Amino acid sequence: MRTIKTGVTLPIDLISKVDRFMKEMNLRSRSKVISEALRSFIEDRNFLLGENRKFIGSIFLIYNHERGETLEKLVDIQHNYLNLILSVLHMHMTHERCLEILLFKGMKDDIKRLISDIENIVGVELVRVIAVECEEHEYH
Predict the structure, then answer these.
(1) Distance CA 6, CA 16 (A)
(2) Which of 131, 127, 125 lies closest to 106 in space, CA to CA?
C-alpha cells in the first residue's frame, strides 16, 4: 500500500490518549493508530454517501456546555430538525460536560445536514452515528 506523509494538528489531550492507548496495547506506530481511527470514522458514516435513502438511527454526542453558546446552538438545531429528531436523551456527566443521544428518522441528505450542524458547534467534543436503512413500509 502506498502512503503519503501529511501533518495534522491535534489537541494535546487527544495525543496523550493515543499514546496511552498505544502503550497499553503495545503498539509502536502512532500513524497506524490514527489511520485505523480515520478508516473507522469513514466506514461508520459511509451511509451518508450515495443516493438519498431513508434511515433510522441515533446520534451520540458529548459536549461542554460551558464553551461559547454550545447549549443554545444545540437546542436551536434540535428545533430546526423537529421533522427528523424523534427523541432526545440527556445526561449530565460532570458540571461542564453532558451526553445526549438523539434518535432520528429521515432522509440521508437531511441527516447529513443535521450531523454537520452539530459537529460545527464549538464545544461539541464527540459525535457518533449509528444508522440503518428503512424500507418504505417500515417505521412509519
Answers:
(1) 20
(2) 131
